[in-house]
Design brief:
Blueprint lengths: L8 H15 L3 E2 L2 H8 L8 H8 L3 E4 L2 E4 L2 H11 L8 H14 L1 E7 L2 E7 L17 E5 L3 E2 L6 E2 L3 E5 L2 E8 L11 H11 L7 H6 L2 E6 L2 E5 L9 E2 L7 H8 L13
Parallel strand pairs: 1-6, 10-11
Antiparallel strand pairs: 2-3, 4-5, 6-9, 7-8, 9-10, 11-12, 12-13
């Protein structure tokens, strides 16, 4: 039996990060299951997770609440899964950001009346009375994605999905490289930036809202198209327990501007 600690990136950085996410309520799925849910290695969305979330959504009309029709669910999925890549990665990311914040408008028919309903892609109302949320949190590792040139693949260390959308991409590195001139967190930043290039896997970063490069207790964060100079070092914030409990409560104005929930 070896008494030498395992110093691989998997044991030092990735597994602890996965364990923490799982402790926070994220569901872990192995790479093979994730690939099956994606359909192929070109796709980056878990459509079944998105559909399952949308099936919990309701819209109101004349004081009554109605579930989304299958046609409306299909319309939202098609719209979310067809970002305008021809306009460039940053523009496509901004369009998805707008949909995350404002929702997607669909046409529904109730009692023969044609109405428009704006459906959120995320449950912004926080926890319900039972302490649960309708949002679906899934994380996977070593997610193989076919590059835009179709010639090779990339494997981000971890990808976290909310309602089937890959909102967080993480690169986990061991603390020491063996080279005093090489910072492993910066290596993770570099990989995130490289993977956004037009001939790499830009589609994944259309949806990402948070990019992380972590190494043990150190880490940096950025967003899509953040250049390396502006990646920020992660600092833990001490939040008093009373404030944490207050954050769990639904905001009094949450959802008032939306036509659906």
């Amino acid at each position: 039996m070896s008494t030498v600690p395992n110093m691989s990136e998997e044991y030092i950085a990735k597994i602890p990060a996965l364990q923490m996410l799982m402790a926070l309520g994220w569901q872990y799925i192995p790479p093979a299951e994730c690939l099956k849910k994606r359909g192929n290695n070109r796709e980056v969305i878990l459509r079944d997770e998105l559909v399952a979330f949308l099936q919990t959504r309701r819209f109101s009309y004349k004081g009554k609440h109605y579930p989304l029709s299958p046609n409306a669910v299909d319309q939202i999925v098609r719209e979310v899964c067809s970002p305008p890549m021809q306009e460039g990665l940053l523009t496509a990311n901004e369009r998805i950001y707008d949909k995350l914040c404002l929702g997607v408008t669909v046409t529904e028919f109730v009692d023969g009346q044609k109405i428009s309903a704006t459906i959120p892609l995320l449950d912004w109302n926080g926890l319900d009375a039972t302490g649960t949320t309708h949002n679906r949190f899934v994380v996977t590792e070593e997610m193989e994605v076919l590059c835009a040139d179709g010639l090779h693949t990339r494997r981000p260390d971890m990808v976290a999905f909310v309602n089937g959308l890959p909102l967080v991409v993480m690169e986990a590195k061991k603390p020491e490289s063996g080279n005093p001139n090489k910072n492993m967190v910066d290596e993770g930043v570099s990989q995130n930036i490289r993977n956004q290039k037009y001939d790499e896997i830009p589609l994944l970063f259309v949806y990402s809202q948070l990019l992380l490069a972590i190494s043990g207790t150190d880490g940096k964060y950025g967003t899509t198209k953040t250049i390396d100079t502006f990646w920020q070092r992660w600092h833990e914030e001490e939040i008093p327990p009373a404030e944490v409990e207050n954050l769990k409560k639904p905001h009094p104005h949450a959802g008032r501007t939306a036509q659906a929930f």
